[in-house]
Amino acid sequence: MRCGASEAIAPDLIGLSADRDQYVFHRQPDNPEEVRLAQLVAEVCPTRSVGTASRMQWASHHPVEVAPSVWRCGSNAPSTAGGHGYVIQHESGNVMVDAPRYTGHLRDAIEGLGGLAFIALTHRDDIGDAERYARVFGAEVGIHEADADAAPFATERWRGLDAMQVGADTVAIPTPGHTAGHVVFLHRGAILFSGDTLAWNPHTGDLTTDRHFCWFSWPEQLASLERLAGHRFTTLLPSHGAISPTLPAEEMSERLLALVARRRAREASTITDA
Predict the structure, then answer these.
(1) pLDDT 10s digits, 2-32
(2) In this structure, are strands 183-187 and 170-174 parallel, antiparallel, or unpaired?
(3) Measured distance between the N- and C-terminal CA atoms of the chain, rounded to whole angstroms
(4) What is the DSSP pairing of strand 14-16 with strand 164-165?
(5) Under a CB-based contact definition with an 8 Å cutoff, are residues 265 and 221 in contact?
(6) Residue 174, exposed/middle/buried by CB under 10 A (0-12, 13-18, 19+)?
């Protein structure tokens, strides 16, 4: 499975195979930090394909705090194509953004963080085991109505294109395109949980989006990203791939508008060539 989670965590150890069909270890870890990274990779791998010849056991590293009071869950689910789930820890009630695979370890870890009050789903592809987590923690679940058929257990359905409050300090911003009901979540005007609509490319050091992974409408996805540039964010936490560095909000907006312009120019060039 080419989910990109493993390479994003340990790019010096892992990359695409020669046939570009899957991610593989290009070399073995040779110091304690690389061993730790390899263990993190094993914990996010949705197919649980990473192990050791000695069957070595280690204490789980996840959940991992990847931003202040924001935790990456690990235990990525095959049903989400290996997408990350996150937990926002907040005194008014914790919010899970997209759901990982359900495990007893993760349940206990989330309980230790204060449980869950709400599960916010970016879109139909990244539901994972949300229903089970909601049942265990008594959490409400939200999804956009355009993708709600994929989560009939959801207790809240968002409509339209207007931004909406989701718990304290977090806003849901509809971004149709990847799917009809795709939504991103902006936490404290800084951290953007971008789902599958926007990512960070560590090789180019810039924002990216890909038409090949757009299931509903590419023009709508670009229009959504253009609108998104009007919101302030400094760090990108995508469902797939690398977490961005923290950059000034103005620079993020400029990069996003430049990305949209490049993609539209490429689209126009393709149409002209045809």
Answers:
(1) 556 777 787 878 777 777 777 788 888 888 8
(2) antiparallel
(3) 33
(4) unpaired
(5) no
(6) buried
